[in-house]
């Protein structure tokens, strides 16, 4: 097995010739190997629109891998995410996304969007539990309004098409994604 000599250091990250997913310059504190982010660390950066991001995750050869946590501030309101992330800093796999305005999504993501099975909780108490495609309710799902009334059936691009009751129980979301707090 090859030994990797890791050190912990502050490192300025200069934007690549082609920025990954709009990431601009930033600063990294954490483990490095051969001058690249490698191991655990935090990365503060901005995106092309000057939105600040703070990533906390494991890195391999300068790219995020596995589980991650990030927080960003858009229009003076924070958003946070915890779960799987891909090499281009996009949410991919299972995770939880929350906002300061009390929106929350627990479930599957693909390329930074809710995609697959998931539950969205709205600030007014309304919930949607079902299938998603590219950030839109799409497929079978159940909308429960704050007053307890239910719309259950087939959705297409956020529009309710037809009522239908399911005989299949929705996929379970792992317990570790049900609740998290920034430390």
UniProtKB/TrEMBL annotation:
Looking at the keywords, is Transmembrane present? no
UniProt keyword list: Repeat
* InterPro entries tied to this protein: MORN (IPR003409)
Keyword field contains Phosphoprotein:
no
Give the domain of life: Eukaryota
The record's PANTHER family line, in alphabetical order, gives: MORN REPEAT-CONTAINING PROTEIN 1 (PTHR23084:SF263), PHOSPHATIDYLINOSITOL-4-PHOSPHATE 5-KINASE RELATED (PTHR23084)
Protein name, please? MORN repeat-containing protein
- Species of the source: Halteria grandinella
């Amino acid at each position: 097995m090859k030994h990797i000599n890791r050190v912990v250091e502050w490192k300025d990250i200069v934007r690549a010739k082609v920025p990954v997913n709009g990431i601009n310059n930033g600063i990294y504190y954490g483990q490095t190997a051969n001058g690249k982010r490698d191991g655990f660390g935090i990365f503060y950066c901005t995106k092309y629109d000057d939105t600040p991001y703070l990533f906390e995750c494991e890195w391999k050869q300068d790219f995020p891998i596995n589980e991650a946590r990030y927080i960003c501030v858009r229009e003076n309101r924070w958003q946070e995410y915890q779960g799987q992330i891909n090499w281009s800093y996009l949410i991919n796999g299972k995770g939880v996304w929350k906002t300061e305005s009390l929106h929350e999504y627990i479930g599957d993501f693909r390329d930074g969007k809710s995609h697959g099975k998931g539950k969205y909780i709205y600030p007014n108490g309304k919930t949607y539990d079902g299938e998603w495609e590219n950030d839109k309710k799409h497929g079978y799902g159940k909308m429960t309004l704050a007053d307890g009334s239910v719309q259950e059936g087939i959705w297409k691009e956020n529009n309710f098409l037809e009522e239908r009751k399911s005989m299949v129980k929705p996929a379970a979301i792992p317990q570790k994604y049900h609740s998290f707090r920034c430390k």
